[in-house]
C-alpha cells in the first residue's frame, strides 16, 4: 500500500536560490510517515501514553534527484518496506507531476521512555502490515 500526502512548497521552505532547502525534504517525509501510520489506525500519542513507546529515526539513506521550487505541488509517497518487532523501514519518494525529486529509505525504531529498544505491541504490528 502506498500513502500519498500532497504538500505545497511555501516561501519559508526555500533557500536564497528559490529552491527547497535540502533539510525540508526530511520534514516533508516525516509528515508523510505520520499521516500514513495515522491512516492505518496507529495513534502515536496513545501509544506513548498506554505503552510508553515512541518512534525514533535510526537511519536515513537519502538521494536528492531534482529541485522543487516555491509554490510547487509535491506528493510524498510512503510505503512500508520491512516490519520487525522493533523496527520499521519506510521507502519515501517526493514527486512533482510524477517526476521523482527525492527518495529515501528511513529506518524507524520503537523505543521506551529510557531510550532503549522496545517491542511493538502485536496489535500495532497488525495495523502496520
UniProtKB/TrEMBL annotation:
UniProt-listed InterPro entries: 4-hydroxybenzoyl-CoA_TE, HotDog_dom_sf, Thioestr_dom, Tol-Pal_acyl-CoA_thioesterase, YbgC/YbaW
EC number: 3.1.2.-
Residue ranges occupied by any Thioesterase domain in the UniProt entry: 18-101
Gene3D superfamilies linked: Hotdog Thioesterase
Broad class of enzyme this protein falls into: hydrolase
Keyword Hydrolase applies: yes
Keywords: Hydrolase
UniProt GO molecular function: fatty acyl-CoA hydrolase activity
One Pfam family linked to the record: 4HBT
Family membership noted in the UniProt record: Belongs to the 4-hydroxybenzoyl-CoA thioesterase family.
Matches recorded under PANTHER family: 4-HYDROXYBENZOYL-COA THIOESTERASE FAMILY MEMBER, ACYL-COA THIOESTER HYDROLASE YBGC
Protein name, UniProt field: Acyl-CoA thioester hydrolase YbgC
Amino acid at each position: 500500500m502506498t500513502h500519498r500526502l500532497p504538500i505545497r512548497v511555501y516561501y519559508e521552505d526555500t533557500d536564497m536560490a528559490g529552491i527547497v532547502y535540502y533539510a525540508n525534504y526530511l520534514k516533508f517525509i516525516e509528515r508523510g510517515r505520520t499521516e500514513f501510520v495515522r491512516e492505518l489506525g496507529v495513534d502515536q500519542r496513545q501509544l506513548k501514553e498506554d505503552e510508553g513507546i515512541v518512534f525514533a529515526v535510526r537511519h536515513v539513506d537519502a538521494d536528492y534527484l531534482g529541485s522543487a521550487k516555491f509554490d510547487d505541488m509535491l506528493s510524498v509517497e510512503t510505503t512500508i518496506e520491512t516490519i520487525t518487532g522493533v523496527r520499521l523501514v519506510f521507502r519515501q519518494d517526493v514527486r512533482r507531476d510524477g517526476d521523482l525529486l527525492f527518495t529515501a529509505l528511513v529506518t524507524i525504531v520503537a523505543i521506551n521512555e529510557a531510550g532503549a529498544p522496545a517491542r511493538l505491541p502485536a496489535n500495532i504490528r497488525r495495523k502496520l502490515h
